[in-house]
Amino acid sequence: MTAVDASVERVWSWLGEVADPEIPVISVVDLGIVRDVRFDAEQCVVTITPTYSGCPAMQVIADSVSEALRAHGVEDVRIESRLSPAWTTDWMSEAGKAALKGYGIAPPVQQAIDISGLHAGIRRRAAPDVSCPHCGSPHTQLTSEFGSTPCKALYKCLDCREPFDYFKCH
Amino acid sequence: MDAKFDYLLRQGDNALILSQQLCQLVGKGPALEEDMALSNVALDLLGQTRMWLAYAGELEGKGRDEDRLAFLRDAHDYRSCLLVEQPNGSYADTLMRQFLFDTWHYFLLDGLTRSSDERIREIAAKSIKEVTYHLRRSGDLVVRLGDGTDKSRAMMQTALDELWMYSGEMFVYDEIDDAMAAQGVAPPADALRKQSLDHMAEVFAEATLAMPSPEAWMQRGGKQGRHSERLGFILAEMQFLQRAYPGAAW
Fold first, then answer.
1. Reading across the β-sheet that carries A140-144, which strands appear in turn?
2. CA distance A146 to chain B (A)
3. Among partner residues A88, A116, A145, which is closest to B37 by beta-carbon distance?
4. Residue A115's pLDDT is what?
5. Looking at beta carbons, which residues of chain B come within 8 Å of A86?
6. Which among A90, A114, A146, A170 is the top mutation candidate for probing chain B, defined by the most B β-carbons within 10 Å of its own β-carbon?
7. What interface predicted TM-score (ipTM) does this complex get?
């Protein structure tokens, strides 16, 4: 046992309180980017995976994870990054999706696994039907496939007229 | 090993130079949505660059990381194809360059997800998810502007005709690509070319644009380090800080 009473389970619960830097209402665990937690002798090893390959938040996330564990008395922390299997929005927890919606970001409406394969993704197609996270109306329209961060698209609601972010199925 | 190092540089350099070119348009897009799309695509390509060049540096084993490879090589050591150093031009030029690149890039990455090299498989699997968006967007806009007004159609056709001679180099395998294909690292040349040309033909037909002949004479040399003077100007801006203040870090 380390200097503090840390177990793998407790580390997971502490990480559940580390917020994503871009979307502070969702934790890095609910977002699905913490792959593994283990102890290598006295050292706590946390494995994380990037959402998008150019995600500029990765360093901030690694720093917040180290900082949170140190705050709980775990001094010796190593952050590893793993690419494979590639992160998909299917890894996001139901709690995470609910938190996104409460924050005004429509959560992914499809399973990434369903829309991959057979080169279907490169053809022109209708945008997915997304409900407005503000008023719940299904009458919405895609404004832009790319939004304020790589993981989001821009929509607008045709009923309450509010613009909103949609967390793309990826 | 040397061939693989070169092959990895080609992937990283293509993504890096196109990313740098797109970054020059940030804040200048013709519409807010397009501005965001360009910067998102540039960011994805930069992330992919990092994965390719980091692996290349590790394989080389001379202590060059992705930053050293990006900022401290001169134009003749760059292995990017000539297409990505073509000027941003009008939005029709930017978009057509993107579509030609995205199509090849998508089918290349699709092949690389079955590479015999595990690390390449991982990088390709990560990247293709992003490049799928890139290709869907650029293809969609080629159709909307090609099958658009007389003026937009004419501009798209001109852009296609002018850029076409730079589209062939990506598909011409040299001894490095052949060595990689023989080891199962790279996909076979014929399949990559056919899949890409089929997709281009499909999109150009929908866009009512006349696709030039794939057998036309093509420019080449970028993959071997023979570039136009354009690349020097691009690198001069991109590498300025590290050249002026060597080793500067955040």
1. A105-106, A163-167, A152-157, A140-144
2. 5
3. A145
4. 60
5. 122, 125-126, 129
6. A146
7. 0.87
On whether both A95 and A56 belong to a single domain, the answer is no
Domain around B76:
2-244
| Of residues A58 and B196, more confidently modeled | B196
Evaluate whether residue A73 is within a structural domain.
Answer: yes
Here the tokens at position A16 are 């559940």
Tens digits of residue pLDDT in A103-140: 999 999 887 766 656 688 888 888 889 999 999 999 99
Nearest CA in chain B to A81: B51
Percent pLDDT > 70 in chain B is 100
**In sequence order, what are the beta bridge partners of A142?**
A155
* pTM, entire model: 0.94
Count each helix (H run) and each strand (E run) in chain B, helices first: 10, 0
Of A62, A55, A54, the residue nearest A81 (C-alpha): A62
Q: How many domains does chain B have?
A: 1
The distance of A33 to chain B (nearest Cα, Å) reads: 14
Are the C-beta atoms of residues B95 and B142 closer than 8 Å to each other? yes
Domain that holds residue A12: 8-81
